Amino acid sequence: MKWQISKQFDFCYGHRVWSQELNKEYALDDCLMCRHLHGHQGKILVHLESEKLENGMVTDFKHLNWFKKFLDDVVDHKFIIDINDPLFETLLPFYKDKQNFHKMPQNYLIPDLNIIKDEPLHVQEMYEGFIIVDFVPTSENLSAWLLEIVSEKMAKINVKVSHLEYFETPKSKSVVYASD
Question: How far apart are CA 150 and CA 75, in angstroms?
Fold first, then answer.
């Protein structure tokens, strides 16, 4: 037998898919809207699985509370930007040398706000809102990044993450499966 449980998480975020290209025959137009700065109400379903139950469970759902806190503290109401985005220097001019960041354990960067400590508060607040990654923040890449984060943490208590569903909108999702 194999059991699977899942837990859902919601958050808001912004991004820009600077690499977007369209085939007009299929898209019916060539409007590259995802290249614009825009936001989503994202939803994630984390699927955990096991071939044996511990205390009658795959794991307690509360064992994913840390992930909710991570999403709330790190991703919610933030703008996720690829460090290689051609607009990076325009959007983060104080960091155009692509230095002076804090590297976080979950493989993202945040601006070192000491660089702009003498700037007006509204400028500092804007920079607090950036999460810098080294990939184009598509739903596929974001789902892979988040799967890696949750898989690494859950492995410490011997819980396997089978896959993660990432709803960019209520009608559009990507699914990424963990490697065996």
Answer: 14
